[in-house]
Amino acid sequence: MPAFPSQEKYDTTNAYAAMLHESRAHYQASFHWTERHLQCVWFDERLRPKRLITSTGETVVVESPGRWNLEAGPDFLDAVLRVGSEARRITGDVEVHVRPNDWDHHHHDCDGLYRNVVLHVTHFASPAMRAITPTALLHVPLYDLLAATPAFSFDDVDLSAYPHAILPATPRPCELALRQSADQWKPLLTAAGRHRLHLKTERMRERLARLQDRDQLLYEEILASLGYKHNTAAFRRLAQHLPLASWEADAPAEQIYARLLGAAGLLPDVETAEEEDSLVFSRNLWDLWWRDPAPLPADARVTILRHATRPHNAPARRLAAAASLFQGGARLYGPLAAVSRDPATRWFDRVTKLLTARLEWKYWQEHLTITGRRQNKPVVLVGENRLAAMIANVVLPLFAADGVDVNPLIAQLPPEDISAPMRETAHALFGRDHNPALYASNGLLQQGLLQIHHDFCLNARAGCQNCTLAQELSRRYSAASSMVE
Questions:
Q1: Shortest CA distance to 244 belongs to which of 316, 142, 175, 326?
Q2: Terminal Cα-to-Cα distance of the chain (whole angstroms)
Q3: What DSSP line would sit under 304-335, residue for residue?
Q4: pLDDT tens, position by position, 362-379
Q5: Which residues pair with 59 in a beta bridge?
């Protein structure tokens, strides 16, 4: 019997299952619009010129502009293009700039996140384009194409509406089906959410069978969770390189922190310390590392991605949270398992309180960064919504994998931060005018949005063509309508 029984509604109807931007630049007065304006033009087929021409004279037909990327890396991911008289199909990422040489100024040629870029869209053209970007990169300058469209004006581009409020002119198929059958959306998201938790549980069960150590597994998965999207694998490797068994029982958080930072290559530049207390803190971290270094082997070194992150989410701050949680080699599984699950409505609050108590670190409650100034008001190492995500995605599936009955807790799943994939999926399912309160306070429904995004929306192309979820929902709505008639 699966750990989350009603996920079968999502499994078996696979009919349900089978079915950031770069920093704003200051441009010359001759063009005072921003890259974001151009991103909107590329994304919105109503603004994008119908006839696109590359700098070498080839035509470009856009089958899909790609997914608007709200994190580090290219502006649009997985675009689909038809290029040239032979209409050869090209898929890959799209980067947008005002001027062609911005590619070089932003050092994209040295950044692995841009290795899949196939098209460079700019406002201005440049005869030196071939010397600026890789020769295989297609280049489409928009200046002449937009100038030839009398009705177009950058003044008409509503930046606040993108990327989520602006949808294709026609509603998406899922929206049409769910609009006519409003009682379907909640069971759909609930089943998808339980399916997602079931998959996480199966993965935990497999890893637990290999490791045979609940506490080490919890340690690795919590570090991976603190790595967020881009540093998940790197943080997990750190936990494997510096396992719980390697920490001394009386090791303070600062000692653990120094070893994690040193192994990750994130020890601070002492000369950048802005105040005396941050200077002392930084020097102490180096002293601790020199006394007890634990560098990763050359063939196992990790690359930590640091760009496009807020100070609250910086990798060095996340590792401070890890050191605080596991200081002294703390084995957290037992204390977490001992938290009463009666009543289920209180369990998440109790677990959150337990973890929050371990995250109290005076220095980090006063500073956002290692070398920065003291803050005017207290800050937390990990916010409530991030703790909720950690509990839902790590603790709960691990308990279920270990045979604990967690089903009474599922309906009480607390909400996480609403992420870009959640938003994107919700707009496709419910339309741009829907009320986010539908799912904003329910962690299980949010899990469902994420699973549907992974199963269907990631692979959907323009117009949601060939999406099996859309087809199934439409079929069910048609069948229900026929029965009513």
A1: 326
A2: 39
A3: ---TT--GGG-HHHHHHHHHHHTGGG---HHH
A4: 999 999 999 999 999 999
A5: 53
